[in-house]
Write a structure and sequence with these properties.
Helices cover 8% and strands 47% of the residues. The protein is mainly beta. The longest helix is centred in the C-terminal third of the chain and has 6 residues, at 105-110.
Length: 129
């Protein structure tokens, strides 16, 4: 079983930045890892994902140009650099891992919250106005 541990969440003012980290217990070049978030009273939604090779990424439209996903293979760690944060970004952010496959952007958006293999416990992000 893959273990995922998120860190880096907290309180930040609108326009500020945070960097989230997700440490994974293992990875392969066939795996994908990324971020989902769940705001109060809303469904969990896709944010960003990266193939472990680093060769491909997807972002939700709401975060394009503001968030950047990256990984450090030597550390088995994926990062989410969040800039120009907005109050609408307030949510619990979850790291998620899938053993194999690379799907369409719409798949991650519509099915990812059910289709990922492993999940971290989440790290909360609160953006104040």
């Amino acid at each position: 079983q893959v273990q995922l541990v998120e860190s880096g969440g907290g309180l930040v003012q609108a326009g500020g930045s945070l960097r989230l980290s997700c440490a994974a217990s293992e990875r392969t070049f066939t795996s994908t890892i990324g971020w989902f978030r769940q705001a109060p009273g809303k469904e969990r939604e896709f944010v960003a994902i990266i193939h472990w090779s680093g060769s491909n990424t997807y972002y939700a439209d709401s975060v394009k140009g503001r968030f950047t996903i990256s990984r450090d293979s030597a550390k088995n760690t994926v990062y989410l650099q969040m800039n120009s944060l907005k109050p609408d970004d307030t949510a619990v952010y979850y790291c998620a891992f899938k053993e194999r496959g690379w799907y369409s952007s719409s798949w991650y958006q519509d099915q990812g919250r059910h289709g990922m293999d492993y999940w971290g416990k989440g790290t909360p992000v609160t953006v104040s106005s």
